[in-house]
Amino acid sequence: MFFSNCFNKNTVYSQEQLNEIASKWNSIPRRSLDYQTSNEVMKKATGFKSLLPVA
Q1: What is the spatial distance between Cα 38 and Cα 44, in angstroms, rounded to a whole number?
Q2: What is the enclosing helix (H) or strand (E) of 45?
Q3: Whole-number mean pLDDT of the chain?
Q4: Would you say residue 30 has pLDDT above 60?
Q5: What's the whole-model pTM score?
Q6: What are residue 48's phi and psi, to 5 degrees?
Q7: Is residue 29 a contact partner of residue 35, using CB atoms and an 8 Å limit?
Q8: Proportion of the chain above pLDDT 90, given as a percent
Q9: Helix crossing, 38-46 with 15-26: angle to 10°?
Q10: Stretch 17-23: mean pLDDT
Q11: Running DSSP on this structure, what letter comes out for residue 27?
Q12: Rounded distance, CA 26 to CA 36, Å?
């Protein structure tokens, strides 16, 4: 994957932990999205259930 070569591999968080954090943030309804979650908007726009990488 392109991004895997761009970032420092010496991180204190695993990809699984980062995915969990992103999932929580993307599940919060946003006023700017007419009270939809980021996940809902992206699913409607792309048809994908999730845009998070597989850990």
Answers
A1: 10
A2: helix 38-46
A3: 82
A4: yes
A5: 0.61
A6: -85, 145
A7: yes
A8: 36
A9: 100
A10: 90
A11: T
A12: 10
